[in-house]
Prior knowledge:
By secondary structure, the protein is mainly alpha-helical. The chain has 7 helices and 10 strands. It has helices at 3-27, 31-56, 65-85, 91-117, 129-150, 175-202, 260-264, and strands at residues 210-211, 226-230, 233-237, 245-247, 268-269, 282-286, 292-296, 299-300, 319-320, 323-327. The strands form 4 sheets. It has a 3-stranded antiparallel beta sheet with strand order 4-10-9, with no helix packed on it. It has a 3-stranded antiparallel beta sheet with strand order 6-7-8, with no helix packed on it. A two-stranded parallel sheet has the order 1-5. Helix 2 (31-56) packs antiparallel against helix 5.
Amino acid sequence: MTEKQEMTRLTTVRSAGRAAREHAGWTAPGWPAVILRVAGSGLLIATAAIHLDLYLTGYRTIPTIGWLFLLQVIVAFGLGLAVLAIPSRLAIASRLAAAAGAGFALATLGGYLLSVWTGLFGFKEVRTTAGIVAGVVEVIAFVVLAALALAPAPANAPADGTAAAPARFPAQIPPAAARAAGMTAAGLAVTALVLFGLVIAGASSPAPAATATGTSTGTGTGTVLKTTTIGGTTVLTNAKGFTLYSFAPDTPTASKCYGSCAVYWPPVTGTTAAGQGLPGKVTTITRTDGSHQLAYNGHPLYTYIADTAPGQARGNNINLNGGVWHDVPASR
Length: 332
């Protein structure tokens, strides 16, 4: 073989190798997109798992909020599987699934912030570890899925080696539009984080038990437990007219409601003088912090944060925070 033939052969081999590498580069999905896909799917499924746990441990009994939680679980699981299962070569479907997941994460976070800030469908959320974790996961999910939705789609070269036709929107997003959308998504993420921090910082957290008088001093005298009629039943209220509740897992001498439970259901503290004039027996139990919680006929007493006005009994017969809650009849 002459030197010229050898050079020609080497050139041909190198050209073939370069073409093979270029072809592989066009058809193989990029690792960044794969990582974003797996991470986005996992975050959506994690959000679904958190909401499923909350739903099963009591939120299912809250009117309207219950079925909304179930809907969130179903949608989050569905979107998570769609983001993971739809291949990159189906650019439009893959991009739409990622965008839907990002929008869902942001909307879910917005609903949580609204429920903490002002209340939602008569239910006011409080600051809990599960809520904070879910909020952080939703912000990260939005960022990851927005990045996936805006990522360049892989271009597949035709098998005959001819040049591929340029992809059109939304299969391929123009660079200028992608940059603008990316900046918008980044701005939304930062805004969501700031609002999340502000709302969580100002939200209710575990606090000292409320007094029977409804004040923070507990120095009221005379009868501070009252009665009112709700649904034809005479039930116990505090001095401000807010319905009082009992917790099924409690015993006559001990409360089982602490931590985040005591945020949703503030224990009523006071002295036995609070029950003057009532037909039942008023006693006190000692909580772990040393405070004295009122009990009526052997049932420790609580208010409910979702009751925003006297005469409401939104906590009656709901299963939340590990047990069933009931308003307290005056004669039991």
